[in-house]
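Team,

Forwarding the record for the chain on the shared tracking sheet. I've put the sequence and predicted structure together so nobody has to dig through attachments.
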Amino acid sequence: MRLKFISLIPFGLIFLLSTISFANDSDNSEVSGSVKIGARSVDGGEDSAKLWEYRDLKDGVVGNVKLNIDKESYFLNMTGKNIGLDDQFFKVKGGRYGHYNYSIYYDEIVHNFSFRNKTFYSGIGTGNLDYYATNRSSNTDSSYTPNIPTTEFLWSKFDYATNRRDMGLTFDIKFDSPYYLTVKASQIETKGTKPIGSPSGVFVDRTGTQTSAFGNLIEIPAPIDYWTKNISLEGGYKTKRFVGSVNLLFSRFENTYDYLKWRNPYVTTSSVYEKTSLPPDNDYYKLSAQGVLKQLPLHSSLAINAGYANIKNSLSMLNTTTSSTSGTSTTTPTYSTETLGLNNSTYTGDISYTTASLALTAQPKELLDLKLYYNYLKKDNKSTLIEYTDLTTGGKVDSELFNYSKNNFGLDADYKLSSVTKAAIGYEYLKIDRERNDAKSTSDNSLYAEIKNKSIDFLSAKLKYQRLWRSSDFKNDTSGTGTTDVNYIRRFLRRFDATDKTMDMLKLGVDIYPAEHLDIWLEYTYKTNDYNATKLGRTKDRRDEYYADVVYEIPDSFKLTGFLDYETAKYDSYHRYINPTGTYSYDPNAAPVTNSYNWSSTIEDINWSVGAGLEIPVRKDKLDVAVSWTYAVADGKNDFTSQNNIGNPLDITVYDDYKKHSLSVKAIYKFVKNLNLIAGYAYESLEYKDEQYDGYKYVMTTTSSPNSYLTGAYKDRNYNTNIVYLLTSYSF
C-alpha cells in the first residue's frame, strides 16, 4: 500500500498545481466529471490464475473518478480507474489551447500465470535456486535416489505472477507557427516470476546413466526483475499541403539477473550447480522521418517514411559446462567441468533494421481511386559469431547469424461501376531474401478482386476473392551422401514459412435490414494453404469461419443483440521417424521398417461461441436494466497414423478443449439528479481439459529414480465465480 500511495503523489501534485493555475485565471470555467465508488464481493475462483490473469478481483472497495475543467484558454482532464488495486490506471491531461499540452500517466498491469505452485527449491524470485540434501554415497545407496522430498506436499508454495508498473509523461509545444515539438518519457518496471524449463546437463541413476524420451527436465521459477526506460523527441511541421516530422527514440532495458543458477537435483553424490541464461541488458534507438504531400495533381497525395533502428548488448559467455563420468551400482560417478572452447569470451549483439515506404493515392477520375505503394525492410545482424567445441565429436560448431531483407509493392484500384455497385482489384508482390540454409529467398504474388452491391433496398452484399502463389528457391535437394546419412532427410524437409505454397481466400458478407429497427449481418470466410512441394512438414491447412449478428431495437422500449460465431481449422503434416540403428533409412520413399517409417498428424480445432444482450429502460429516465450472456466452446484433437501402424500411435482426443460461460446483470437506478445507484451480478466459469494435464504429477519417475520435476505451472485453470457489486455514481 505504501508503494501505491507513493505512485499517486505525482498525480496529486499535478492536480494541485493545475487547480491553482485555474483558480488564478479570470476566464469562466466549466467543470464536469464523475465519481464512482462502491464495493464488490467475489466468491470462487481463488485458485485459478486464468480468472485473475490480467485483473485484480479482490473483495472490497472499488472506485473510479473523472474530472474535466474547461476554460476559454485552458483545459484539464483527470482519470482514475480501479484505484488501489493491482490493475489501477491514472492519467492527467491538460494544457493551453493552441500553445501546449501535457499528460502524465500511471498504468499498473498484473499478469498471473499460475497459483499455488510447488518446488523443493529455496531462493524463489532470486538468481540462485538451491535445496538442502545430504550427499549420498554409492557404498550406502546403490540406487542413488535423490535425497530430496519427492512428495510435493512437503515442498514450498509460490505463485507465478508479474506486476508491471508503467509511468510516463508527454509534453507538446505548439509554436505560433506550423512547427511543433513533442517530448515523451516513460519507465516500465516488471517484477515477479515465470516458469521456464531446463534440461539437466548431467544426471545419474542406478548405473550412472539414464535414457528416457521425457527425462532429466526440470521446471523452475525464473526471476523477473526488468526495467525499461524510454525517451523520445519528435519535431514536426504542419500545413494544409505538407505534414512532416522527425522522431528519435532511445530505450534502455535492464535485467537484474543475467543468469539463473540452480542446483542440479539429479546429481546425488555431490553438489553440482548449473546456469540458465536470462534476457540480457540492451540499448535500442530508432531514428525515423515521415512526410505527406497533399493537394497534388489528380487529387493525389504522397506519403514517404524512412527509418533506422539498432539494438545492442554485451554479455560474458559461459565457457564451461558440467560433465560426468558414469558410475556403476558400486562405483560413485565423478563430476567435472569441461571447457567449451569458445572463440570469444564476450558476446556483442548488434542488430539493425532499415525501413522505407512510399504510398501514392490518386483520383484521376471521379469514380476511380488508385493506390500505389512500396515497402522495404532490411535486417542486418553484425553480432559476434560464436564458435564452440562439440563435446561429443570434438569438432567445431559455428552459431548462425540471421539476416534478411523484404521488398514489397502493390497496386489497388477502386471503381464505382454504378450508384449501387463498387468494384476493387489489387496486386501485391513480396520478395524475401534470407541468410539460411534451406530457403534463401521466396517470392509471393497475390491478386484479389472485390465487389460490393446494394441494389436491393433491404440488402447489401460484398464478395472478395484472393489468391497467392509463393515460390521458394529450396537449396537442399542434394544434401547427404546416402540414405543413412543424417543430412539426407534435408532433401525432403520443408518449413512452411518459406516453402512453395498456394493460398486461396474467399470472403462473403451480407447485411440485411428486412424491417425497421432490425439489422442482420452474415459473414463467411474460407481460407486454405496448400504446401504442394512439401514431402515432410506441414502439407495443408484450411480454415472456415461463419459469423452472424443481429440487432433489434424499439426506441424507448428495448434493444436486443445477439451473435453466433463458428470456426474450424485443420492442419495436416507428414513426418518420418528414424532410429539410426540396424536397418533404417532417412529416405521417406523407402519401405517402412521398425527403425524408420513415416507418420502423419492432423490437428483439428472447432471453436464456436454464442451470445445475447438485452437493454430495457424499465422506467424512462429512472431505471435501466442490462443483461448479457455468452457461451464459448473449443474442441481440439490430434489424429495420428503411421505406415503399417508401426508404433501403434494413439490419437489425442482432448486437445486444448474448454467451455467458457459468462452472465452479467446490471441495473442503474437514477436516485436523484446526477446521482445513480448501480447494482450488478456477474457469473463466470471455465472448464479446461487437455490430456497432457490428466493425472498430473509433480515428480515423473522411471523404474529406478525420478527423471523430471514439475512445479504445477498452468495446471489449475478451471473456475466458477460469482461477483456481486453495488456502486454509487455521482456526475457533476
